[in-house]
Write a structure and sequence with these properties.
It contains 20 helices and 16 strands. By secondary structure, it is an alpha/beta fold. Strand 11 and strand 12 form a beta hairpin.
């Protein structure tokens, strides 16, 4: 039984472009129907069910943005891509903001076009019902609050686009988790999700890390090396702490994103890459742009759509769900029984402001798992710091850190005493502390105890 062909709508007033697109798509076993203007396109959309629409920017009776908005309102499940004049990024970004799935520049690069079409067709084959199916998913964004449900809904919508997304939020809210969910729920899910912390790469190695290098291109380059863009080809590149990129690297990154191509160090030719860019930072990127510390053109390119991830203070009703999930996760990692969270402990967590957000909650529960007795975590086991909300917020914004270092010192003391009591027999010390040997080993490493 032969498979039903996909159908694409091509909207362009230039016969040559329509013919080029028709030939290219026909070779991909896609049937095409063409329109010369917006009026014809609207008529065809009412008559046929399409799997993809490619529209030119300039049309005799209007522009492609108008058609994109019409499709968003009337056939929102249809992926539509804009064909723009070369170098006209303003229109491309406007098209993405209006709901376009992606864009391709003239003269049309057939490789880029084929990649775009294949990704769009994966979307067409995926149902679009908006469901809130992540609340029970152990890998999802947990919570039943309005703000978390709203964030899940946005993630689902953004996963169907190829527009760059700028994920903003305080340290510890789960920006990488959000980026991963956008990737996993979208048409690129079967390919790599490559996270990179831009602040952790030394400036002199940055170009090689992002774009790769050829053997012999510099001292120490003994083999060819693939860069992060190539590792993410067909998938998603997540630029965490993007604000930490040096200005010189920002220029090169902007070019790679706009041209959809990279040149390895020492390479003679550019290599086409098919990558979706997601980025995040806890810093105020807009303020950095105004100060000239972040390039405005790169800011507009990566911030096509902004997604704010709420702080834990904004959805405290989710603390019990998150605490239960995190305790289970820690217990599984440590291969130990999951303790119960006492009412006094839960009340204390509900009253705490969490400047370090979900990451801080996990750290607090890890410590409580070390200190608790009789399979019950009490308020005392949590060792919550007493700091005012404003102090917390300022501290987090300035440093990205959240936990009072004196708490780690207290934990070190407890573990040290147990080790001394058992003459440094780790198995006996773990038993005395009421945790597994593996959990003790983990804490020793994390706290830097030899």
């Amino acid at each position: 039984m032969s498979q039903l062909k996909h159908i694409a709508l091509i909207v362009d007033d230039e016969p040559d472009i329509r013919e080029l697109l028709d030939i290219t798509l026909s070779r991909m076993n896609i049937k095409t129907i063409s329109a010369e203007n917006i009026t014809q396109a609207k008529d065809l959309l009412n008559q046929h069910k399409f799997d993809l629409c490619l529209t030119d920017m300039r049309l005799p009776d209007g522009n492609g943005i108008e058609l994109i908005k019409y499709i968003q309102e009337n056939v929102s499940s249809l992926p539509v891509a804009m064909i723009t004049a070369h170098g006209n990024m303003e229109y491309a970004i406007e098209a993405l903001k209006s709901g376009a799935f992606d864009f391709v520049s003239k003269p049309v690069d057939l490789n880029i076009l084929r990649n775009l079409v294949n990704t769009a067709l994966k979307l067409s084959d995926t149902p679009t019902e908006e469901t809130d199916n992540n609340q029970n998913d152990q890998q999802g964004l947990l919570g039943q609050s309005v703000s978390i449900k709203e964030t899940r809904k946005k993630i689902q919508k953004l996963s169907r686009s190829q527009a760059p997304v700028y994920i903003h939020g305080e340290s510890g809210v789960g920006k990488e988790l959000v980026a991963k969910l956008i990737h996993e729920q979208g048409p690129r899910a079967e390919n790599n999700f490559v996270p990179v912390n831009c602040g952790a790469i030394p400036a002199e190695l940055m170009e090689s890390e992002f774009f790769g290098h050829k053997k012999g291109s510099f001292t120490g380059a003994t083999t060819d090396k693939q860069g992060l863009f190539q590792a993410a080809d067909g998938g998603t590149l997540f630029l965490d702490e993007v604000a930490d990129l040096p200005l010189a690297m920002q220029v090169k990154l902007l070019r790679a994103i706009q041209e959809k191509a990279i040149r390895p160090i020492g390479g003679q030719q550019e290599i086409a890459v098919n990558v979706r860019i997601l980025s995040a930072t806890h810093k105020n990127l807009n303020a950095l742009t105004e100060k000239g510390e972040f390039r405005q053109d790169l800011y507009y390119r990566i911030n096509v759509i902004e997604l704010e991830v709420p702080s834990l203070r904004e959805h405290p009703e989710d603390i019990p769900i998150l605490a239960k999930h995190l305790l289970q996760k820690i217990a599984d990692d440590w291969q130990t029984e999951t303790p119960k969270l006492g009412d006094d402990a839960l009340n204390a967590l509900n009253d705490y402001s969490f400047p370090g957000n979900v990451r801080e909650l996990e750290n607090i529960l890890e410590r409580a798992m070390t200190l608790h007795e009789d399979k019950l975590i009490t308020q005392a086991d949590l060792q919550l710091p007493e700091v005012s909300n404003s102090d917390h917020i300022n501290h987090t914004e300035e440093s990205g850190l959240s936990l009072d270092p004196t708490l780690n010192e207290k934990e070190k003391e407890v573990i040290q005493k147990a080790l001394e009591k058992t003459k440094y027999n780790k198995t006996a010390a773990a038993k005395l502390l009421g945790i597994s040997f593996r959990a003790l080993r983990y804490r020793l490493k994390k706290l830097g105890i030899e």
